[in-house]
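> example.struct
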């Protein structure tokens, strides 16, 4: 080694410094490569739905020391972009009716202490080449879990009743649960009000034209559209139902991490 340094006209200390820097460079490249591989796995495992904030949280949970900025840079460099597409809106609330309207008891108080204390519900439009579809969803405000949902080709009282029945049978809540909706004709109908009475639920309704009064279920439908509906063209109603079932039951409720739940999925948060 000494003879080599003499021949190359370099000092021993300079040679060992070069060796050390080379080793550090190789170690850095290996870590970078492993990090990109893990980011790619988490991105694909979320079906291309997670951006850098959620992937950073998952990496830190696994023990990686990494910043959201670096994750964002690496995702950009490797073409990992969460699905975003054009938006469209179809009116799903018909408040031009003479049905009784309940007061806004919830009043944008979205903090509750346990599951099955407050449910929020709404209807959203699902485009399909075979014909229009409408999704009625019911969300538990504490766990952010979708406790009931129903897909149908008509926006009727039967649609929201089916979602409510499914939620009640699945969760069996105690009397006194607060049920919040908009003031659409489906939710104010005599049949729906009677079912709420049978289930011993209290009724709350948003103010006219104020989407913030029902922000949590609106947020769920926005996420659903961003992560599934806007990225998919449903050819048939059966295809739409299967995709929604997989998204709600397997991905959203069981797997998708939620910032309001300390980055846990609804079911994992409920279990803890």
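> example.seq
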């Amino acid at each position: 080694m000494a003879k080599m340094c003499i021949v190359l006209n370099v000092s021993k200390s300079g040679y060992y410094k070069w060796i050390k820097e080379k080793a550090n460079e190789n170690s850095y490249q290996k870590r970078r490569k492993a990090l990109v591989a893990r980011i790619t796995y988490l991105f694909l495992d979320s079906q291309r739905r997670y951006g850098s904030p959620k992937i950073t949280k998952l990496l830190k949970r696994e023990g990686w020391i990494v910043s959201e900025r670096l994750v964002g840079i690496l995702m950009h460099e490797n073409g990992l972009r969460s699905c975003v597409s054009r938006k469209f809106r179809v009116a799903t609330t018909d408040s031009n009716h003479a049905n009784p309207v309940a007061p806004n008891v919830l009043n944008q108080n979205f903090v509750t202490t346990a599951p099955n204390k407050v449910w929020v519900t709404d209807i959203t439009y699902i485009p399909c080449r075979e014909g229009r579809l409408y999704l009625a969803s019911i969300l538990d405000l504490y766990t952010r879990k979708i406790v009931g949902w129903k897909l149908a080709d008509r926006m009727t009282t039967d649609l929201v009743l089916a979602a409510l029945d499914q939620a009640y049978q699945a969760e069996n809540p105690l009397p006194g649960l607060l049920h919040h909706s908009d003031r659409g004709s489906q939710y104010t109908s005599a049949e729906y009000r009677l079912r709420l009475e049978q289930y011993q639920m209290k009724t709350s309704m948003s103010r006219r034209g104020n989407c913030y009064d029902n922000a949590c279920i609106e947020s769920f439908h926005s996420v659903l559209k961003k992560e599934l509906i806007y990225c998919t063209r449903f050819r048939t109603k059966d295809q739409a139902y299967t995709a929604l079932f997989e998204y709600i039951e397997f991905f959203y409720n069981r797997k998708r991490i939620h910032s309001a739940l300390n980055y846990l999925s609804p079911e994992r948060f409920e279990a803890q």
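> remarks
The first helix runs from residue 2 to 8.
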